[in-house]
Amino acid sequence: MIVWLNGASGAGKSTAARHLLDLLPGSTLYDPELVGSELRLMLPAARLAQVGDYQDLPSWRRLVVDTAAALLNEVPGPLVTPMPLLRQEYRDEIFGGLASRRVPVRHVLLHAEETILRERAGRAGGAPADAAAQGRCRAHLEAYEDALGWLKQDAHVIDTARLTPRETAERIAEAVHAGAGACDIVQTPEPTAETLAAGVLLFDDADRVLLVDPTYKPGWEFPGGVVEPGEPPARAGLREVTEELGIRLHSAPRLLVLDWEPPKPPGFGGLRMLFDGGRLAGEQIRDLLLPGPELRDWRFATEAEAADMLPPVRWNRLRWALRAREQGRPLNLEAGVPVG
After folding, report:
1. How far apart, in whole angstroms, are the C-alpha atoms of residue 79 and residue 56?
2. DSSP class of residue 202?
3. How far apart are CA 108 and CA 106, in angstroms?
4. pTM score, whole prediction
């Protein structure tokens, strides 16, 4: 298990974490900032100049997950991780990766009001911090305030304003023992070979396409998922639409796109299929259901809006699927490019 202590600079994560080690038998401090420090030493300066923070590096986010899983093979756990994680898509990627490795997460937010955080940002170890340190701490506050909406829904919140570090740690330990802050997100196993996936495009009466926001990975997606062994792809798409949204489609969807996705380590690639599920009736849209552990939100989007919501590979696949729908014939793609 990982006890992830989230919050802004000055919330008391690091000091509370050290006290927490005394309260959780077998616990080990795991600081993902060390992963970022090593990446800074290994990556070329030109690559580092492309990102504003090491958390923006896909390699950091993956290594955080891999390192945690490796540590839990060496120590009994839990891992205590004091680390701000203020971008929801990064939370999705990291916590989803941990879930795929069957590593439970307790997400705890250490919160204090902005005035208190600003006051604490001006001190380091009880002494006044230098101007650079104050600037770095205060730079986090705006991002933290922006993230508070989803953080308070996602994590167990402990207000540290009037608590000593020891008292904060005691509150965290109580919450962990009570099961608070559990992230009950879908556990999608990491692929070990090429996969076959089927997505279904659903439309409203304005021909906007339905997109869903998974809790376990960054970016919006189409309803659908991996085809099980021995399962027909179109039937897999129907199954996924029912499981994810509570919608039952009574006829087999029409194939729009077959796209071969090349392997790109650490991914294995495989075949990706998009089907046309047709237009949804008003009552179907009204009764849409979202399984909390798997999907956070849904919305209908125009083609232009989808370009800003989907990762580039998925956006390209959607673009060709819409062209295939207009032309009334399926398209065969290889690495996102039509062939044949």
Report:
1. 23
2. E
3. 6
4. 0.74
Contact 169, 16 (CB under 8 A): yes
Phi first, then psi, for residue 276 (nearest 5°) are -95, 110
Q: Where are the beta strands (DSSP E) in the chain?
A: 2-6, 28-29, 79-82, 105-111, 123-124, 127-128, 156-159, 195-203, 209-214, 224-226, 254-261, 270-279, 295-301, 331-334, 337-338
3-state secondary structure of 67: helix
Q: Which of 81, 58, 55 is nearest to 183 (CA)?
A: 81
**CA 38 – CA 40 distance, rounded (Å):** 5
pLDDT along the chain (340 residues), means of 10: 92 94 96 95 94 93 95 94 93 89 93 78 54 64 90 93 94 96 75 90 96 86 93 94 90 94 88 96 88 84 95 95 96 94
- Of 47, 92, 94, 86, residue with least CA distance to 66: 94
CA atoms of 338 and 332, how far apart (whole Å) = 6
The Cα 169–Cα 16 span in angstroms is: 5
Contact 56, 85 (CB under 8 A): no
